[in-house]
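User: Some background: our group keeps a shared notebook of sequences we're curious about, and every so often someone picks one and asks for a predicted structure to add to the entry. Today it's my turn. The entry only has the sequence so far, pasted here. Could you supply the structure so I can complete it?
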Amino acid sequence: MSTRMLATGILSTVVALAATSSARPQPRQPPCAGAPHHQFDFWIGEWDVFTPDGKSAGRNHITSIAGGCGLEEQWTGAGGGSGRSLNTYDAADRQWHQFWVGGDGTVLRLSGSFAGHVMTLADSGNRIRFTSNGDGTVRQVWEQSSDGGKTWKTVFDGKYVRRAPR
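Assistant: Of course. Here's the predicted structure to add to the notebook entry:
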């Protein structure tokens, strides 16, 4: 090998090492920073919830948890009922998932997606739609089906209004 070839090889190695060692490491993006993980953020907040006739249905407290990777719901019904849910977007199946546990023993495992201004979560007998309204309110409509989804009956229709700051 000639001295010139050896010098060229050494110089190339030095330049490559200098380039990699002087390159600044790129900041690591948080695991749930992508837009799909935040499609349901419109639901975050302190809410008073009302039935279509204006009566109080209850209160709901929705918070972002786990570094923005999920939402936790804490429901208190006007009639004394309660429940909690965990909600998250799973990039593997590109679906939102909700796991609900009610104080009455109700357990729901729902999944779905966000389109337009509506988050739709469902299983074989339940379908819940959360609509982000232009005025900052959210409408939740929960429907149930006893015939595999051929027909649906509304079991809850609530309008979420942000609670005034104290």
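Suggested note for the entry: Residues 5-11, 13-22 have pLDDT under 50 and may be disordered. Residues 13 and 19 are 10 Å apart (CA to CA).
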